[in-house]
């Protein structure tokens, strides 16, 4: 199966969460606890016979799915005549995804709901037109099935085990089948399928995940005390993504002001690295972060500290915390001549160029993006 590079439902959501986990609660820190009490294999045998939404709700093991369907308005769609075949992730499935991102289930749900168009496509990636019982599903081994999102996944049958291979090649298992509804059928799955990015061109499957036209950060620059921080970043030519985000978030004016500020600036290559981790183009990563203003402002201000801190000062702060303009701390780590920052999720960003002069502060260049 060819991997559709821009399949990115959970991936792009993961990106926004990766960059902005604490945006919804920066003063309290990100919780990594999970609270759902669903079992991995729910008892659907006693579910009342209604439409697919009614049946899912009555089962009691799909509360997250029901919440997301409600948020997108898809409850009405899936309460219609159909018929529909729904491959329904359990609450435990959503919890597993949240745990993998080291965030709470509530934080993940907020991140999903904050991207309504993306979330709608992701949910529709779990729905197929028609009433397809398990006996028919097992005859589809190796075949691509088109979902209501317009994207496809592949059925894999191995003995009595039925799985779905999604756009990232992830295997999601069917753990219960043929849950009857008045307008279709539900098959229960143990994970969340990675859905399609809105407006994805299905013919664009041979593209590389990142096709950077940015310059690699392969030499230092000194900056200029006659230029402010924003002007310095623009002149360097290696911070195009950061400038785009600062512009969209409204921080250009702030960082052009008197300050002083210390800016820890991720290079374009740093943003590309995050996009590559998720298997999506950088432009899609930026689009999704920019589409959520709260997350965008958090990400931008998480890289700025009030006052002017030189590399020499940072070198004397090993283990100490710096409060960023986002209201959350990063920890300074010094190892010999190497200075790094550790964010609240344990991600490490190394300072690869320091003491870049500016009229209103100083820039230290990072090789990673703080979350």
Automatic annotation (TrEMBL):
Pfam families: Fasciclin. Coiled coil: none annotated. InterPro entries: Adhesion/Biosynth-related, FAS1_dom_sf, FAS1_domain. PROSITE patterns: FAS1, PROKAR_LIPOPROTEIN. Residues 49-193, 226-370 form the FAS1 domain. GO terms for cellular component: extracellular space. SMART domains: FAS1 (SM00554). This is Unannotated protein. It comes from freshwater metagenome.
């Amino acid at each position: 199966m060819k991997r559709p590079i821009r399949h990115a439902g959970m991936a792009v959501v993961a990106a926004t969460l990766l960059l902005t986990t604490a945006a919804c609660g920066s003063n309290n820190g990100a919780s990594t606890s999970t609270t759902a009490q669903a079992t991995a294999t729910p008892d659907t045998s006693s579910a009342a016979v209604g439409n697919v939404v009614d049946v899912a709700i009555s089962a009691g093991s799909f509360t997250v799915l029901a919440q997301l369907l409600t948020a997108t308005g898809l409850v009405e769609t899936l309460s219609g005549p159909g018929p529909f075949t729904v491959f329904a992730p359990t609450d435990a499935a959503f919890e597993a995804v949240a745990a993998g991102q080291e965030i709470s289930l509530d934080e993940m749900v907020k991140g999903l709901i904050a991207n309504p168009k993306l979330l709608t496509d992701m949910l529709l990636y779990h729905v197929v037109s028609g009433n397809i019982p398990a006996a028919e599903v097992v005859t589809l081994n190796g075949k691509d099935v088109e979902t209501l999102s317009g994207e496809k996944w592949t059925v894999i049958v191995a003995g009595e085990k039925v799985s779905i291979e999604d756009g990232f090649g992830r295997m999601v298992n069917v753990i219960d089948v043929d849950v009857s509804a008045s307008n279709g059928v539900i098959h229960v799955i143990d994970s969340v399928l990675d859905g399609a990015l809105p407006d994805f061109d299905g013919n664009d499957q041979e593209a590389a995940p990142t096709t950077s036209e940015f310059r690699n950060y392969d030499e230092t620059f000194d900056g200029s005390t006659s230029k402010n921080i924003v002007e310095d970043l623009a002149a360097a030519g290696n911070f195009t993504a950061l400038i785009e985000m600062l512009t969209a978030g409204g921080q250009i004016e702030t960082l052009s002001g008197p300050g002083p500020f210390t800016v820890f600036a991720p290079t374009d290559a740093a943003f590309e690295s995050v996009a590559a981790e998720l298997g999506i183009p950088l432009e899609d990563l930026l689009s999704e972060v920019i589409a959520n203003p709260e997350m965008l402002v958090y990400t931008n201000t998480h890289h700025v500290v009030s006052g002017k801190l030189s590399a020499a000062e940072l070198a004397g702060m090993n283990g100490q915390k710096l409060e960023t303009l986002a209201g959350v701390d990063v920890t300074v780590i010094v190892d010999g001549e190497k200075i790094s920052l550790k964010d609240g999720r344990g991600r490490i960003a190394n300072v690869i160029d320091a003491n870049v002069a500016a009229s209103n502060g100083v820039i230290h260049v990072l090789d990673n993006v703080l979350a």
